[in-house]
Amino acid sequence: MKDRYNRTIDYMRISITDRCNLRCTYCMPQDISLTSMENILTYEEIIRICTNAAELGITRFKVTGGEPLVRKGCVTLIRELKRIPGVEQVTMTTNGVLLGRYLEELIQAGIDGINISLDTLDAGRYEKITGKNVLPDVMENIEQAVASGVRVKLNTVLQSGVNEDEWESIALLAGKKQLDVRFIEMMPIGFGKNCRGISGRELLERMKTRWPDIEEAADIHGNGPAVYYHVPGWKGSIGLINAIHGKFCASCNRIRLTSRGKLKPCLCFGDTVDLMPILRSRPATEKSDSFGDIESEDMIRRAIAEAIAEKPAQHCFEQKDHITEESQMVSIGG
Ligand code: SAM
Ligand code: SF4
Fold first, then answer.
1. Three-state SS across 289-328?
2. Domain with 111 in it: what CATH number?
3. For residue 209, how many C-alpha atoms fall within 13 Å in the half-sphere facing its CB?
4. H helix intervals, 7-158
5. Where are the strands (E) in the chain, listed by range?
6. Which of 40, 205, 254, 317 to pair with 16, CA 20 to 30 A apart?
7. Domain span holding position 325
8. Number of domains in the chain
9. What is the CA(29)–ligand 2 centre distance, in A?
10. Tens digits of per-residue pLDDT, 240-276?
């Protein structure tokens, strides 16, 4: 459906857990108080929301976390999401640590693409950034994912003085392997507020100097804001997600669902529409052809439509004191 700025909203990111097996410095460097399981959406509730969202024109879902693969039954959720009428694409964002264990099942379930976060190619640095010495496992899982033929994108957040110097070696993975590398600007959410990122604009200058024949790739690769570039002869492309310096709000197409059942109209602001009261006071019935009574499902759709209607014209990441989102990225899902 369209929002009040005439943007088509057809993409939902679903955070299925706020738990994670890593402790990335800019996301969740230390344990945070976790939501108890009874306050987390069940998979049945997620499917119920997404079925109603699909009726409103949401055709693509991204499953995220925390780390989605730490929640039991994640693969079954993907399979169920794929079965919802009207759904065109279901993808996942993962840190890749557990991917080898679930890759085959995810493919069987019909996953359309996997984004894997990778900020460094150096094992020691990986441990410093994520708190765990598991880079070889992640690299092996990336290899396996590429070999499986599933669409793979790597997500890299560059930080000044941390991994900035690796931009070229990480970008080169897109030269050698059938995958895209996307550099995401550090966003001032949660712990990210205290980290210094690298602007996509600066990175593009470096890329143009390093590979003078690089060109913007006209075809769109994904669900949103990345602008892609291609170097002749490379297998994959480089995407820049310039959340701060290349405000792409005019073409925003998304809403976010947190694991606590709140719909977030915009990453930057704390405002949410809470679906929990409707879901828990009007539980689904046992009937297989619908979830609850017509009125209950209508209430869910109205709440989703309200979240879409409340989407602001743009974020305000450039004015940090105007940002009202206080949650950590780990509980939003990126
Ligand atoms: N655990 C999964 C993963 O790491 O891919 C999914 C959740 S994670 C929050 C999703 C993405 O958000 C990751 O690529 C991560 O690097 C990115 N991210 C986390 N905090 C961020 C921040 N402050 N600014 C930009 N990206 C951030
Ligand atoms: Fe976990 Fe992903 Fe956040 Fe790292 S970025 S702490 S892997 S949720």
1. CCCCCHHHHHHHHHHHHHHHHCCCCCCCCCCHHHCCCCCC
2. 3.20.20.70
3. 7
4. 43-55, 74-83, 99-109, 123-130, 135-148
5. 11-15, 60-64, 89-94, 113-117, 152-156, 180-184, 215-216, 227-230, 238-241, 254-257, 262-264, 273-274
6. 317
7. 11-332
8. 1
9. 9
10. 998 887 778 888 999 999 999 999 999 889 889 999 9
On whether residue 218 sits in a domain, the answer given is yes
Q: Give the number of the atom of ligand 1 that is nearest the alpha carbon of residue 193.
A: 23
Distance 164 CA to ligand 1 centre (A): 17
CA distance 183 to 14: 21
Which pair of structure tokens corresponds to residue 188?
A: 């001032």
Q: What is the residue type of 219? A: D
How many CB atoms within 10 Å of residue 65?
27
Q: What is the distance in A from the centroid of ligand 2 to the CA of 23? A: 6
Domain membership of residue 191 (yes or no) is yes
Q: Is residue 303 part of a domain?
A: yes
162 in a domain, yes or no?
Answer: yes
Cα–Cα distance for residue pair 90/268, rounded to 1 Å: 24
Say what the pTM is: 0.95
Over range 29-58, report the average pLDDT: 94
